[in-house]
Recover the amino acids of this structure.
């Protein structure tokens, strides 16, 4: 029995994860917690430190692929106060790590603040946006981030770091796996709610025209190589429509992989792997995945091969 089982009010066992990701795939977490504030998070981490159990933090599950065998560790998914958004009269917007980015954009616009509208096109959370310096439509998180509040899971120490301290660059930060963003402060500029609403509608229209809506996907699968587009490269390699099992490269945008009926996480993983191999062979470019892999995919592949 793990010490994690001694906190039944905060930590559950064998929690299904598929409904918590946009792919709707994957197995359960051995242990699972949904802390609603910093005190509950600290309590879970205090017990976790007495174990050697691996740890994963889950946001909105929009860039995550969970292995079919699940994750033999602890998954923490912040909720409650971690999803709060406050727009100050100064224009500074403070949001918890679990706040959805589209809701952050709308909250700022509603108060007549501009700058964060681009977040409406990113189906992730504030914590993930800081960790990956999320961006689209010519804007990135680092341009508007004032500071992020970070907890070290190993010590429980809370610190605040600005964009320079986070070393933010294209889809990169220096945040370690042992650090969790718990909140972030963003600057904004004065703007009209009407103009902000128009811009967000334009972003929404662009997404509908260029990205596969109404499908199970995790957004962009690969980072764009310097000066190029991953989607263009995959398309040039002739891989639009390439499928493995129930997973297929979108015919609308080649940097999206859709999970169709009967798809498994293993199908998606193998399609990602083979796409990288084929692109490298055809174009000499090694694509770097944006998708985060949770669990043992080699074990899942072995079990499929054994007919289990």
């Amino acid at each position: 029995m793990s010490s994690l089982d001694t906190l039944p009010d905060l930590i559950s066992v064998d929690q299904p994860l598929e409904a918590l990701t946009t792919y709707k795939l994957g197995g359960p977490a051995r242990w699972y917690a949904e802390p609603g504030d910093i005190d509950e998070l600290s309590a879970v981490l205090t017990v976790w430190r007495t174990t050697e159990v691996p740890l994963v933090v889950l946001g909105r599950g929009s860039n995550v692929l969970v292995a079919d065998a699940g994750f033999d560790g602890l998954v923490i998914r912040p909720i409650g106060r971690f999803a709060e958004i406050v727009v100050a009269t100064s224009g500074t917007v403070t949001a918890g790590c679990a706040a959805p980015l589209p809701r952050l954009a709308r909250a700022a616009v509603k108060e007549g603040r501009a700058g964060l509208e681009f977040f409406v096109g990113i189906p992730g959370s504030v914590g993930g946006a800081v960790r990956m310096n999320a961006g689209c439509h010519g804007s990135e998180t680092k341009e508007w981030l004032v500071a992020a509040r970070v907890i070290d899971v190993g010590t429980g120490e809370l610190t605040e770091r600005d964009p320079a301290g986070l070393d933010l660059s294209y889809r990169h930060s220096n945040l370690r796996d042992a650090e969790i963003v718990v909140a972030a402060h963003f600057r904004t500029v004065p703007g009209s709610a009407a103009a902000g609403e128009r811009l967000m509608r334009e972003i929404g229209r662009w997404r509908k025209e260029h990205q596969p809506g109404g499908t199970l996907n995790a957004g962009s699968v690969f980072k764009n190589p310097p000066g190029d587009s991953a989607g263009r490269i995959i398309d040039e390699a002739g891989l639009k429509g390439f499928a493995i099992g129930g997973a297929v490269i979108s015919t609308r945008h080649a940097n999206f992989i859709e999970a169709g009926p009967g798809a498994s996480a293993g199908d998606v993983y193998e399609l990602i792997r083979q796409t990288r191999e084929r692109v490298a062979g055809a174009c000499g470019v090694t694509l770097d995945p944006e998708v985060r892999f949770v669990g043992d995919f080699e074990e899942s592949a072995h079990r499929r091969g054994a007919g289990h």
Notes: The two ends are 27 Å apart (CA to CA). Residues 302-308 have pLDDT under 50 and may be disordered. The CA atoms of residues 105 and 117 lie 5 Å apart.
